[in-house]
Amino acid sequence: MATRTTGNLTGPTGGTGDAAAVLTAHGVRRAFDGRPVLAGVDLSIAAGEVVALLGGSGSGKSTLLRVLAGLDAEATGRTGLRGTAAVVFQEHRLLPWKRVGDNVALGLTGPDVRARVDRALAEVGLADRRRAWPAELSGGQAQRVAVARALVRGPDLLLLDEPFGALDALTRLRMQSLLRRLRAEHGFAALLVTHDVEEALLLADRILLLDGGVIAEEIPVDLDPARSPDQPAFGALRRRLLDRLGVPAA
Ligand SMILES: Nc1ncnc2c1ncn2[C@@H]1O[C@H](COP(=O)(O)OP(=O)(O)O)[C@@H](O)[C@H]1O
Ligand SMILES: [Mg+2]
């Protein structure tokens, strides 16, 4: 397993990880100004598995995702990544001075970049926007470009930090089904950070609850692939998660 050595994180020297895991973390800690936010996080994501990371606002979800993405030099603990990871944030983070296609192509090399970019844009339904400027896109379109920019790298793991959180409800539903389709086609694993219980239940194979700086609970989502919120089993899981998050019954 390739290991991360960013900052204070040290990678395992081999033999410690789950052989089938695309991502592992052991004892990840992070404090801000002496206040611990992550207090020893352990997790493992299998190849092709979609895991939702659920937690209240300020529970440390984004902090953990940044650590796992190798973007936090101050964290301690061990993380291991097998293959390549790509990140999608809540804000699209497109460069406004580059056209859509050039944003997707950023950092890519090789003779077939143009074809790969076109394919990625087509996959998110934006084949005709390659020459558009980011400012010309709707919020949902810009976020689809961000997804294309991640996809074009052929990632083994997508790290998604509330990627649909800023979108209106209808666009969010469309993005959720897009993610399900892309996942079925590409088979990437994903860690989906969300505070939306329904989104977690719709998309994930397993849910991790971040609370008190640790993974406080792990909930397998034993629902069929064509799951929907009106199924009794879906409702029961939703109730259990909302209870756990401290949201009183309606
Ligand atoms: N760069 C930072 N400096 C100081 N405090 C931070 C920083 N980043 C996050 N925090 C604090 O860490 C806690 C967790 O933040 P965050 O990971 O963004 O939570 P979540 O994504 O679950 O809402 C919050 O209390 C936040 O204020
Ligand atoms: Mg966050």
Automatic annotation (TrEMBL):
Keyword field? ATP-binding, Cell membrane, Membrane, Nucleotide-binding, Translocase, Transport
Looking at the record's lineage, which domain of life comes first?
Bacteria
Asked if the Swiss-Prot or TrEMBL record annotates the protein with the keyword Transport, the reply is yes
Do you know which InterPro entries this protein is assigned to?
AAA+_ATPase (IPR003593), ABC_transporter-like_ATP-bd (IPR003439), ABC_transporter-like_CS (IPR017871), ABC_transporter_ATP-bind (IPR050166), P-loop_NTPase (IPR027417)
Q: Which residues form the ABC transporter domain?
A: 23-237
Do you know which SUPFAM superfamilies this protein is assigned to?
P-loop containing nucleoside triphosphate hydrolases (SSF52540)
Instruction: Output the Pfam families linked to this UniProt entry.
Output: ABC_tran
What Gene Ontology molecular function terms does this protein carry?
ATP binding; ATP hydrolysis activity
- Mind telling me which PANTHER family this protein's record contains? ALIPHATIC SULFONATES IMPORT ATP-BINDING PROTEIN SSUB, TAURINE IMPORT ATP-BINDING PROTEIN-RELATED
**What is the protein's given name?**
Sulfonate transport system ATP-binding protein
